[in-house]
Amino acid sequence: MTRFGTGPGLALLLHCSLAHGGVWRKVAAPFAQDLTGLAPDMPGHGKAAPWDEQGDIHDVVTAQARSLLERPAHLVGHSFGATVALRLALEQPDKVLSLTLVEPVLFAAARGQAEFDAYMGESQDFLAAQQAQDWPRMAQGFFSAWGGGMAWDDLPPKARETNTALMPLIAGSNPSLIDDCHGLLDGDGLEQLRMPVTFLRGGQTQPIVAAIHRSLMARIPQAREIVVPQAGHMLAITHPDAVSEVLRENVTVGVS
Q1: Tens digit of pLDDT for each residue in 130-184?
Q2: Other CB atoms closer than 10 Å to residue 111's CB: what's the count?
Q3: Are strands 2-4 and 35-39 parallel, antiparallel or unpaired?
């Protein structure tokens, strides 16, 4: 886990798949005097031990994050990490001061919309590779869709090897992200959220992200969306100032 700052407030920062807690450094830097930021590494990421493939990966990561939520905090999550942040807010809304969701990949939220059907159609090769446990092929397809525009062949060999090794974990996330097996969309939990909720997406990201945001925002009372025009899916890393600005607003307006 990476720790940022020594301030009295608490922020929990949850990274995307194939990244690590340290990627939040530029987001957290302006708040060293205001917040203590905790950024855990998902299993198999950063300095964390490899995932043992026991249990459900969304359960595992949520339990890890939940253990750090000892008092009310600002939650910030990107991609898979954003779905975990949303789950925590639904489970323990009294411990979440604000919720900043950077492109949460809860694909199930877009089900029934054209973008969902298009994305699933475009993902057939990727999903077939997953079914065959052809991890190198799956890694190329995953990175092509969600790598923020960087070409797979431009990655250093070690990075390609590391990303390929994480594909079983990506495959293990599908029940939670595509099928919502943990019921994040069930009942009226979204409608009951009362903390400020901000969605961020890149203007050049996958179209399904806009559909996910649209569906979730229709149900969350205090939700807004910010679009970063020149950014792709990895905007939490490529455009950290956009995320910092949202966090700054939540901290300085006295969200507590």
Answers
A1: 999 999 999 988 888 887 667 788 888 888 898 899 999 999 999 999 999 999 9
A2: 18
A3: antiparallel
Runs of H (alpha helix) within 44-190 = 57-66, 80-91, 114-122, 124-131, 135-146, 157-165, 167-172, 174-177
Residues in contact with 170: Cβ distance below 8 Å, sequence separation at least 6, in sequence order:
17, 130, 138, 142
Helical axes 124-131 vs 135-146, angle rounded to 10°:
150
Strand order across the 73-78 sheet: 2-4, 35-39, 9-14, 73-78, 96-102, 197-202, 223-228
Query: Which H or E run contains 227?
Result: strand 223-228
Q: What is the pTM of this model?
A: 0.95
Of 188, 187, 205, the C-alpha closest to 82 is 205
Place of tokens 């990949």: 105
DSSP-derived pairing of the beta strands 197-202 and 2-4: unpaired
Identify the DSSP state of 93: G
In this structure, the number of other CB atoms found within 10 A of the CB of residue 94 comes to 8
Q: Are 208 and 110 in contact (CB under 8 A)?
A: yes
Interval 206-232: pLDDT, tens: 999 999 999 999 999 989 999 999 999
